[in-house]
Automatic annotation (TrEMBL):
<dbReference type="InterPro" id="IPR036259">
    <property type="entry name" value="MFS_trans_sf"/>
</dbReference>
<dbReference type="GO" id="GO:0005886">
    <property type="term" value="C:plasma membrane"/>
</dbReference>
<dbReference type="InterPro" id="IPR050206">
    <property type="entry name" value="FtsK/SpoIIIE/SftA"/>
</dbReference>
<feature type="domain" description="FtsK">
    <location>
        <begin position="368"/>
        <end position="514"/>
    </location>
</feature>
<keyword id="KW-0131">Cell cycle</keyword>
<keyword id="KW-0238">DNA-binding</keyword>
<feature type="binding site">
    <location>
        <begin position="385"/>
        <end position="392"/>
    </location>
    <ligand>
        <name>ATP</name>
    </ligand>
</feature>
<keyword id="KW-0812">Transmembrane</keyword>
<dbReference type="Pfam" id="PF13491">
    <property type="entry name" value="FtsK_4TM"/>
</dbReference>
<dbReference type="GO" id="GO:0051301">
    <property type="term" value="P:cell division"/>
</dbReference>
<dbReference type="GO" id="GO:0005524">
    <property type="term" value="F:ATP binding"/>
</dbReference>
<feature type="transmembrane region" description="Helical">
    <location>
        <begin position="106"/>
        <end position="130"/>
    </location>
</feature>
<feature type="transmembrane region" description="Helical">
    <location>
        <begin position="36"/>
        <end position="56"/>
    </location>
</feature>
<dbReference type="InterPro" id="IPR025199">
    <property type="entry name" value="FtsK_4TM"/>
</dbReference>
<feature type="transmembrane region" description="Helical">
    <location>
        <begin position="6"/>
        <end position="24"/>
    </location>
</feature>
<keyword id="KW-1133">Transmembrane helix</keyword>
<comment type="similarity">
    <text>Belongs to the FtsK/SpoIIIE/SftA family.</text>
</comment>
Length: 514
């Protein structure tokens, strides 16, 4: 009879699952998640009231939910006894977690503790020869086996021991969580940058190590590529950025004096010509010098050190010639460098109107015009420079510009930060597939997982018959987000895990551009 009840319940669950699939398959991710949460809440209430009604009346006609509620309650009580009342509580917790989108450690702790209580109560009631509604058939069999093996006293000791373990785990993980909150993994305050060239100091922190169970759950979530709705944030986002401030540039008459001095110095060195144009950029000033006929360009190029000394410049660069022009470019650093503000670039019309989610501001060109590029069209991007040259500032600007333009359903990040101080500030944003990785061992594992995900996506692209994600997203309903891997201090990572990292990076560099 019990087997018949189980088959009936399974059949009802299959029909219900099919109906839910047909209703929800066209919905977006977050709406679907909320509706699933509401369904679980409704289901938990139905199960609980059906079970209470069954305990009070025990009749099909008097059950609040009729035959379905009666037979479902009968199945649960016959199988697990009175301890089955915990089941609707677990379903209720799952519904709350889906509605609030907060499947965090607290939810798993509470759910695990309630499941432990259910198990202890389930076997303990089986020690005593009670009616099946109390211990259930399974509880009676398990309890009898324990009593026959170690006796009633031994069984009670086992139950108390198990209850102590579950209680200890519940309390201990709570204390661990409190300690971690005292020393948080990431700062909860949003950093405010007053100047684009200055960088705030951040605490060196340790990345939390995930247990295997949590890692498996995250693996499942990563494969699903959940869609998260983020709307109405752009105006507030821009308000966090500093307003552009115009730096005072050198006066044109001063620059003309420099041009005259440049002509004189070249004349002293036996090179005749004239400066025909002066272009003032945010960082350098370019003098366009037209040499007289008969002057070899190579001769001008060899005079860079002499000209730098004559003009008292820190350094000087000669473009001989400027592509597309019959002039030589002589570039001298400005005394006062102009700060390029990120907000100014994000508000630029060409950035606002470009549809690509990977379109990023690079800075300004020699003329002071904003310059942008699309990461999706690059082979890959390597940022190099000496210490203090602004690599980290640029990297943060790149990430910020993508966060401004793309939702988590369009772009997701994998961040590797061996220094622990640059990318950890992004922990907690919905765009991250994982918290910022600090340990080199974890970085290798994550890169290997990215390689596996790349292969999965290529198989999916092949199945649909397209070459890249853009074409794929135009054909299917459930779109795939771009996955952008950001590595700070790549050289340090290569020093620690050279061969392992190199192999994965080569694979990703060769193939992970579709």
């Amino acid at each position: 009879m019990l087997a018949l009840y189980i088959l009936l319940a399974l059949g009802l669950l299959v029909l219900l699952s099919r109906a839910v699939y047909l209703v929800f398959r066209d919905m977006e991710g977050r709406k679907k998640q909320r509706l699933n949460g509401l369904l679980l809440l409704f289901l938990s209430i139905v199960i609980f009231l059906s079970m209470v009604s069954y305990l009070i009346s025990g009749s099909v006609n008097k059950n609040l939910f009729g035959p379905l509620g009666h037979y479902l309650s009968r199945l649960l009580f016959n199988a697990f006894g009175i301890s089955s009342l915990v089941i609707p509580v677990l379903v209720f917790l799952g519904g709350v977690g889906l509605l609030r989108n907060t499947f965090n450690r607290l939810f798993f702790r509470i759910g695990g503790f309630i499941t432990g209580l259910f198990f202890v109560l389930f076997i303990t009631l089986g020690y005593f020869k009670l009616p099946s509604v109390w211990s259930g058939e399974l509880g009676s069999k398990v309890g009898n086996l324990i009593v026959e093996g170690i006796g009633l006293s031994g069984g009670i000791i086992v139950s108390v021991f198990l209850l102590g373990i579950f209680t200890f785990l519940f309390i201990e993980t709570g204390f661990i969580r409190i300690k971690r909150k005292e020393k948080p993994v990431v700062s909860t305050e949003k950093p405010v940058r007053k100047k684009a060239v200055r960088r705030e100091k951040k605490k060196v922190v340790k990345k939390e190590k995930k247990d295997k169970k949590k890692q498996k759950e995250e693996d499942k979530e990563d494969k699903e590529d959940k869609v998260i709705e983020v709307t109405g944030y752009k105006e507030k986002f821009l308000s966090l950025l500093s307003e552009p401030v115009r730096e005072r540039r050198e006066e044109m008459n001063v620059l003309k004096e420099k041009a005259t001095l440049l002509e004189e110095k070249l004349r002293d060195m036996g090179v005749e010509g004239k400066v025909i144009n002066i272009i003032v950029g945010p960082v350098i000033t370019r003098f366009e010098y037209r040499p007289s006929s008969g002057v070899k360009i190579s001769r001008i190029a060899s005079l860079s050190d002499d000209l730098a000394m004559a003009l008292r410049a820190e350094k000087l660069r000669i473009l001989a010639p400027i592509p597309g022009k019959e002039v030589v470019g002589i570039e001298i650093p400005n005394r006062n460098r102009e700060i390029v503000f990120l907000k100014e670039l994000l508000l630029d019309k060409s950035f606002q109107t470009n549809p690509s989610m990977l379109y990023i501001p690079i800075g300004k060109d020699i003329t002071g015009a904003p310059y942008f590029s699309d990461i999706g069209e690059m082979p890959h991007l390597l940022v190099a420079g000496v210490t203090g040259s602004g690599k980290s500032v640029f990297l943060n600007s790149l990430i910020t510009s993508i966060l401004y333009k793309a939702t988590p359903s369009e772009v997701r990040f994998i961040m590797i930060d061996p220094k622990r101080i640059e990318l950890s500030i992004y922990n907690g944003i919905p765009h991250l597939l994982f918290p910022a990785i600090a340990e080199s061992e974890d970085a290798v594992k994550i890169l290997k997982r990215a390689e596996e995900l790349m292969e999965v996506r290529y198989r999916e692209l092949s199945r649909v018959g397209v070459r890249d994600i853009n074409a794929y997203n135009k054909k299917v309903r459930d779109k795939l987000p771009y996955i952008l891997i950001v590595v700070d201090e790549l050289a340090d990572l290569l020093l620690q895990k050279g061969r392992e990292v190199e192999r994965v990076l080569i694979r990703l560099a060769q193939k992970a551009r579709a």
